[in-house]
Amino acid sequence: MGRLFLTSRWASLSLLLTVPLLSLIYLYVNRMNLPALSLETGLDRRIPFVPAFILPYLGWFAFLLAAFVYLAFRDRRLYLRTLLRFDIGLLACYVVYLFCQTTVPRPVVADTSWLNHLVLLVYRNDEPVNCFPSTHVLTSYCLLRAYLSSPGIRRPIRYAVAGSAILIILSTLFVKQHVLLDAVGAIALVEAIYALARPVRIAGLRLLGRVPSQAAVSSKS
Predict the structure, then answer these.
(1) Which of 23, 75, 123, 132 has the fewest CB atoms within 10 Å distance of its CB?
(2) pLDDT per position in the chain (221 positions), as tens?
(3) CA torsion angle for 129, 135, 136, 140 (degrees, to 10)?
(4) What is the rounded distance in angstroms from the CA atom of residue 185 to the CA atom of residue 176?
(5) Would you say which domain of life the source belongs to (predicted)?
(6) Element spanning 102, H or E
(7) Is residue 166 within 8 Å of 218, Cβ to Cβ?
(8) Biggest CA pair distance of the chain
(9) Do residues 92 and 98 touch, judged by C-beta distance below 8 A?
């Protein structure tokens, strides 16, 4: 089965369906009306509300799809590892949302421009909860890390993905969908998943009797 996903383009791409399926949990938790605490700090209050950042915030959906599809065509092993880490990260976020719900204070926004209208549209359809860790930041940072680690991807593509990911991460703060600790928590979660992946992979190879050399492990982690 694993070989099928490595050799078949469409089989590997079908795994992207795990993302909307897992997102159903987000939608459920988003409407649960659980008690929530705020992680806002004085530094967050100094970050201005910038409506223009709603564009990269909404562009996250297209970024996610394009980045994963390109990775599936260019480096399928890295694609599968990144998607697995991504899904594990989402599940970890949803567990946190169920047991430690946080919220973000939102500014009063007048519907006086098309950018403000987009912001209000997001606010109306997404409750100000499910904040820590930020899934927008989690997914963006996960893809940024994957692309920067792949020498097989051309440098302009890597930089374009990194730049887009950074813009999306910043957008969560400037449209007041998240606070700094939400972003830091998401990045720390991705790093924790990466740190745990290496010993798990080595243990699995040992069970199969295929322990790679130290150099091979370092290059693939």
Answers:
(1) 23
(2) 455 556 667 788 889 999 989 988 888 887 887 788 999 999 999 999 999 999 999 999 999 999 999 999 988 889 999 999 999 999 999 999 999 999 999 999 999 999 999 999 999 998 899 899 999 999 999 999 999 988 889 999 999 999 999 999 999 999 999 999 999 999 999 999 999 876 655 544 444 455 555 545 444 54
(3) 170
(4) 16
(5) Bacteria
(6) strand 102-103
(7) no
(8) 65
(9) no
Q: Check if the beta carbon of residue 140 is closer than 8 Å to that of residue 63.
A: yes
Q: What is the DSSP string of 134-173?
A: -HHHHHHHHHHHHHHT-TTS-HHHHHHHHHHHHHHHHHHH
Q: Which residues contact 177 (CB under 8 A, 6 or more apart)?
A: 57, 104, 122, 126, 128, 131, 134, 136, 171
Of residues 87, 96, 100, the one with CA closest to residue 138: 87
Q: Which position has the token pair 């998240």? A: 178
Element (H, E) at 4: helix 2-7
Residue 15 Rama label (left phi>0; alpha psi -120 to 50; beta): alpha
- Which one-letter DSSP state was computed for residue 97? H
Q: For 101, list phi and psi in degrees, rounded to 5.
A: -80, 140
Nearest alpha carbon to residue 47 among 187, 185, 171? 171
Query: Rounded to whole angstroms, how far apart are CA atoms 105 and 179?
Result: 9
Q: Which alpha helices (DSSP H) does 8-127 contain, by range?
A: 9-14, 18-30, 42-46, 54-74, 76-99, 114-125
